[in-house]
Amino acid sequence: MKKEILVIAGPCTFGSYEELYKIASELKKRGITHLRAGAFKMRTSPDSFQGLREEGMEILFRIKEELNIKIVVELTSIEQVHKYGDKIDIIQVGTRNMYNYELLKEIGKTKTPVILKRAFSATYQEWIMAAEYIKREGNSNIILCERGIRNFMSDETRNILDLQAIPYIKHNTEYPIIIDPSHASGRSYMVESMSKASISAGADGLLIEVHYNPEESLCDKNQTIDLETFDRILEFIRKYD
Ligand code: PEP
Ligand code: MN
Fold it and tell me: For site-directed labelling of 102, which of 23, 117, 169, 226 has its Cα 20 to 30 A away?
């Protein structure tokens, strides 16, 4: 069956205009309409790079204009929602903020589409209720994103991809569901097969971390795929959309 599959791609984060521009141009060449890159990073350690923050947002807006590409950005505070919520194309809620109901309510007051990532230990009901917090404020343009849940062998994989979330969400809700195989596995060699499995299982799209040179990634380089791998995933998706 043919259907429209949303592919959102980009680096986890970026350190300069040049780096992001180069990635975005490669994506654009491949027909990708949505660039995702983090400016405000929710890092486990406060010692890790936190993103270029406001300066990063300026770079994202510049590239959006220059390349005519939509931008998907994680916002982590109410203040950021007020400042950028109406200016970006999709607001991402990260896994660590799924339970931040005050933030969700504020995002619900915007008209901007939202990607709501599942918290890494959330039940389906908790995830759906988080979406409800956004919806109650008037914004029902919500895409759910499964990004892996906690597992008992984190030395081998970062999280574990819950593919069952796809049929569950499809069967029980009206929301589209996309899969983030990058954070789910934490391993770049797993991203291609998990992307294909997700699309085969009925996912409406993918959110993938891609870099022209994954080794240079400032964040999450172990799960970031190169452009050759990304091309193989796109080729597979073409059979579906
Ligand atoms: C991200 O998308 O870069 C990210 C930090 O994801 P998550 O919130 O799923 O960990
Ligand atoms: Mn990341």
Answer: 169
